[in-house]
Design a protein that fits this description.
- The chain is mostly helical.
- Among the domains are: about 170 residues, no CATH class; about 110 residues.
- About 55% of the residues lie in helices and about 0% in strands.
- It is built from 28 helices and two strands.
- The protein has a two-stranded antiparallel ribbon.
- It starts with a helix and ends with a helix.
- The C terminus is likely disordered.
- Pfam families: NPH3.
- Pathway: Protein modification; protein ubiquitination.
- Keywords: Ubl conjugation pathway.
Length: about 575
Amino acid sequence: QFPLLSKCLLLQKLCSEIPEIPSHLHTLHLPDFPGPAESFELCAKFCYGITITLSAHNIVPIRCASEYLQMTESVETGNLIQKLDAFFISCILNGWRDTIVVLQSTKAFPQLSEDLGITTRCVEAIASKILAKPSKISYSRSIREDISCNGSEGYYRHNNNNNNSYSNNKGWWGEDLAELGIDLYWRTMIAVRSRIPSVIIGDALRIYVSRWLTNLSSAGSSSDCEKDRVVLESVISLLPVEKGAVSCSFLMKLLKASNILKVSSSSRKELARRVGFQLEEATVGDLLVPCLAKNAENVMYDVDIVTTILEVFMSRGRSPPTSPSRERSRRSSSAAAASHGCKIKVARIIDGYLQEIAKDENLGLSKFVAIAEAIPEFARVEHDDLYKAIDIFLKGHPELDKSERKRLCRILDCKKLSLEACMHAAQNEKLPLRVVVQVLFFEQARATMSSNGQVTDDELPSNIKALLATNKISSKPATDSFTTNITKMPPDDQWSTVSGLKTPKSNISTLKMKLAEDDDDDVYDDFPDGFEKNSKIMSFCMIPSKPKRIFSKLWRPINRNVG
């Protein structure tokens, strides 16, 4: 008499608790009913023998509703729960897109879907399809499945038009999986990441980040920031451990996002550690991490995080605490050579980075010097880019006193400057005097070696000959193995060209004025060992009003170039 009661055990229990009153209508309340009214309507239609249409979009709410109403086999054979489970197993779990749609719909009923095993079975089905050969997967979406109370079932149509496009791509699943929320995405990735190449996992994470972490802003609502923060930290936890699985540029984007979203310090340190292991792949733009947090220094860029990255990178080449065996030593020889080349690449990147942060007038000298000194001496084949960074820093920090300028310039090796850089440095009034004198000395030494007999080696002091021999040996492999790339400068910041050089007379006058202002002994501090204040150098530094023959030779290469 009442089909709804005959198939729903819950309704039978509720009706049995109502006292029988003749000709009196009773109302049953279902305050905890899961899902919308449409789900109850479909359950009722099934009870009355009306055909219902199932799809990947409505099976979860109907399944939750039927569970709530207790439409089990114990109440009546062929009840709704049994038919829904059969449809779920035979149709939904066999299709790729349908499984993802069903998994997404479980977000509306998280606990009940978990209890019924819907979520877990969908995750397992997706994982098995990712691990299977793409040619064996059905990518179709179920169109409809008609089920009536008498057990007759309708049809299930397939659409396999796009199978070939999926089969040709190893990471074919990345974009589809990016539709999932982070909690379900994380569970699925955990299920597959140990059995899939790390590069493919990295590509999938990159797709997911581009889908969910766009237009980030620290000024957004707190709820949005919290959601983005959860997404970011979950992605960081899923990063493959293998080097190169994700690009250094992608890692730096995550690091910049972590600054905006203020993620935990442990997540930021993990990103910095990963960047440090592949820093040679970075660009200068990658390292420019905006400093958004309020601080006393009010600097533009987060220099501290780059310092941490550099420390991690440099720790890669440290010697082990115990001596390796011969076999291990032979195996590591090629790795050591690669490490040497990586350090040279990183040196060029860091020098370019120094040029950018040097423009920040709030950047302290100690932090600038700390980053510059973190690069080992052998890694800088030439010092032109470092010199430009120092020059930019001096221009942006005119308040530096004499001792601070000297401290800044101690990281510069004048022997590794090109002719163009030497010509600029010789006329740079912001440099300490001792640097100018060193530049002139080494340039004169180089000019002497290439002057074809104007001054023979026998005429040079022994300490200068030793210096030239050392410089020649140290510079030879650099020219054989590497091409010096001088960073291009903006038009308003270019070094003086040969045509713009001052005359020797004006240079001499400038040096005389500087010597008068800076009459101390530290001019000689950074010259090679054994270089004393002998008569020739003293006569050079005193600079008489009419330069002697040795000083006129100093400018001969420049005069020759000018002419």
